């Protein structure tokens, strides 16, 4: 419509004339909220840095090698017969057959743990 040389009046244009400017307390409230948001963001960044440093200081990556003997947690095994609370929490030791990434290994299971049910 602007290319034809006229600009139509929209209903919103008439409403704009009747609006009062933003109240000063509203603008100061917005400023206060903005400062609080920036402060919270800075606090979160400081905490994230602290948590990462703390984790990195105590966490050591596992150094598994093929042929190492390891214990296996039986917490999620459902193929062990008998009452769960009477069974051992860990089984093994079992030999590592292959490495699949830094935390995943393939074991050479024997006996009751080798069953696939």
TrEMBL record:
This is Uncharacterized protein.
């Amino acid at each position: 419509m602007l290319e034809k040389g006229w600009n139509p009046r929209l209903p919103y244009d008439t409403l704009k004339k009747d609006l009062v400017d933003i109240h000063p307390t509203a603008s100061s409230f917005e400023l206060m909220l903005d400062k609080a948001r920036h402060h919270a963001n800075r606090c979160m960044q400081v905490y994230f840095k602290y948590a990462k440093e703390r984790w990195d200081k105590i966490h050591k990556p596992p150094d598994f090698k093929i042929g190492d003997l390891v214990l296996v947690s039986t917490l999620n095994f459902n193929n062990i017969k008998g009452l769960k609370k009477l069974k051992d929490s860990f089984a093994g030791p079992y030999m590592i057959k292959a490495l699949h990434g830094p935390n995943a290994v393939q074991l050479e299971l024997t006996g009751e743990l080798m069953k696939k049910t």
